[in-house]
Amino acid sequence: MAHYRGRDISRYSLYICCISLLMMVAWGWGAVQDVQAAEQSTSSDSLSSPVVLAGSSVDLADVGVNILAGWLTGTTTAMEYSIDSTNGTNGTWVQAEMIVTPVQWQPGYLYIREQADPTNIRLVAVIQLGRDGAYIFVDPTITSIAPTTVDSSLAEPVIGSPDSADMATTPMVTNEENSMETKPLVTIDPATDSTLPTIHINNLLAIQQLTANNDHQLTISIPKDQPSIQVPIEGSLLQALYEQQGSLIIVCPQVTYTLPIAILPQQQLIQSFTNPPSAVTPITLIINISTPSSSELAPLQSIVNQQGLTMIGSPVGIQLHAEYNGQTVAVNPQGSDQSLDVTMSVPNTTSTPSANATATTAIVYHSDQTINPVPTVISPSSADSQSLARIHGWSNGIYALIAHHPSFVDMTTHWSRTDVNDMAARLVVTGEKGGVFAPDRLVTRAEFAAMIVRALGLSAEPSKITFSDVNDSDWYAGVIGSASNHGLIEGYNDTTFRPNQQITREEASEILSHAMKLTGLSTDITTNEANAQLSGFSDRKQVSNWAVPALALAVKYHIVEGNQGAIEPQSDVSRAQATTMIRRLLQRSGWI
Predict the structure, then answer these.
(1) pTM reported for the whole predicted model
(2) Burial of 177 (0-12, 13-18, 19+ CB in 10 A)
(3) Residues 289-344: pLDDT tens digits?
(4) Strands 397-403 and 310-324
(5) Please, which residues bridge with residue 54 across strands?
(6) Alpha helix locations (H) across 14-153?
(7) DSSP, residue by residue, 170-193
(8) Crossing angle, helix 235-244 and helix 203-212, to 10 degrees?
(9) Fewer CB near the terminus (10 Å): N or C of the chain?
């Protein structure tokens, strides 16, 4: 076997491959020890080629290995590779890239096959990878691949390997399953002047757990003495998360963070880089969870004070970014149609609690020094434990719990006072001059868009669709942009949105039906079911054909109710009605 110290690339030849195959067939060389002896007879700059099965359509003539950099070179997209302990059969197969394929080397066996070959009939190479950087090509025609003993005295650490930090004191583990059993799921590197403590994940064990769990969730527990950490999700695990449509759960002392990978569309992540890779495997996604410094909290505290809010407990900063080929890009899940989940502890109040000190919702503070509320479920507190706030968020930022208990002089006896007070405490609706809410004033389309955007926890953003009657300088431009980008609104065929036009009950129901998809409510409804939901209303025929499914869904979930036997689809919506509809949507979705 050849070992390498400080070499960049070792190339190997198809001719040697063919010679090796002929010698092995002719002389019955099937044992790994004989392959080792043959390799030791070559020069230190070469290595026996992988054995290529007859009839393979994959040309390995130019394939090389740069184990120090963690690359396969001379690869093509006609190849796939897998690093696992079960002969590739149950492992995660990743498509190779053109010319250079970055690989996160792990102890065990690296299998290479033709793309989309579930039977492994076209298995073209097996490479045994040592913990200490040594490696050896193994004949893939051998029925049972036996572990080999490797002299690691001359081996260099494998750059990029999670084992590189303890390489000098850890003996080589030749059996990959033993490697997964003896190595913990996570290890921690201490903080440096420029980085947070880093949580390294054992990718092999993590992928095994992810695929074994029926819910395809992987839970990473962080020690209680690590309030601020960064968690790199390297390419092979990232690819497995996408393949399983799984979720990553990071349990920290101050917060539990759940990231459904669907919140980061794969192609969107890949294309966020200049000269993007052809696959997600070369990308590392990094999650930062930290306790913000006093200087970071100062502008947030200023906004909270200005708006008459009270901050409860300790805020938590959550940031995602990705790295590839020396480039770092911010990753913001704001653009997806699925929310992330943040669970924070709510401090218990004192023995004489004040109503004004009771947390009502969470907010997220953005880098542009703006805040927006996010839907929050606060569990009731018990005598011996803290309450928990479960937050549905969409973006990076500093998450904080706040208390807000407004009151309006015109809502003391109004039928909607409970809904209005709750939505006002959650910063979804606000009052008007003079301390009134004006519950019976009619709502415009722009106002309803603003209310639904705030209720869902979305932030204002530039629209990807241009409405001819919405200007960037309009107060509602950002909320209409966000509503449009998330598929909540569409506008009219003449490219207008008509923001100042009052909204009807069927138009509001259409927007609410799109919001249901974001909150996880089922929007599947047949024509017969929709007709059945609406058949009991005396004015059923006044419902526009395009609005039938949406209004039927709103009735099904008791978000919209009739008035003396009529559904009133063409009636305009008041502020009280809009607030009540939106609150019911959040309640039915379990978001508040």
Answers:
(1) 0.69
(2) middle
(3) 999 999 999 999 999 999 999 999 999 999 999 999 999 999 887 555 678 899 99
(4) antiparallel
(5) none
(6) 14-27, 32-40
(7) S-----HHHHHHHS-SEEEEPP-S
(8) 10
(9) C
